[in-house]
Amino acid sequence: MRPVLLSIFGFDIQSYGVSKAAAALLAAYLLGRTFERRGLQKDDAHSLVIWATFWGFVGAKIYFLLEHSGEISLHHLGGSGFTWYGGLIGGVAAFLVMIRRRHLPASTVLDAAAIPLTVAYGVGRVGCWLSGDGTYGRPTGLPWGQTFPQGMVATDVPVHPTPLYETTAAFAIAAILWALQRRTRRPPLEILGAYLVLSGISRFAVEYLRINEPALLGLTQPQLWAIASVAVGVAVITRGRLRAGRGVPPRVDEPVSGDAAPQTFIKA
Question: What is the radius of gyration, based on Cα positions, of the chain?
Fold first, then answer.
């Protein structure tokens, strides 16, 4: 493991921070490409990612501190210790504010952001694995079990490398969303709904290998969030398909390309 990738003039370049920066840059690039294909400004995509990343980190740190409110120390205020769902809340809130300020088509932008978000999450988890930040899983005797003797949260016992599991799942989800996006016609927000369902299932499953304490009914807090994610995703997809079945046209912020006759679906 390499918590510190290299040192320059005594300043440590940490793998955790590098991975998060790489994830943000990749997300900005992918979203910018998608914006260009849909006739939107690439600069708007970059602004969305910058602000969502900033407030995502703020939300992730606040959520982490709330989780550890009874044991906060200077260590908890440092450059480690972030909770994904807090980051998701902060990032989505910033995203929605920027969409409104830039007068962007909300449904189009939210669908476009699903794949870049998924890929960025996978890249970010590589940093968690390299740094050994404690998000690894339970002890295991499987051949790919790993120790993190020099990790930020060290262990000499072989454990499940759950960040790598999540990276693999994220790339698989991105591939599924990409295939779905290539469909010629689909209801608005279907990509977002599929992302919420698939990412929720992935996080719910991997939590059985993680070391988080149960919060309610034997489920961990991330599992509860995962259930909520799946429920919202199913609701979004169902609503879109019901509206399509009734022939309800998209809202004015959901541009339709192609022939004008069937106004139920948007083009990919």
Answer: 20
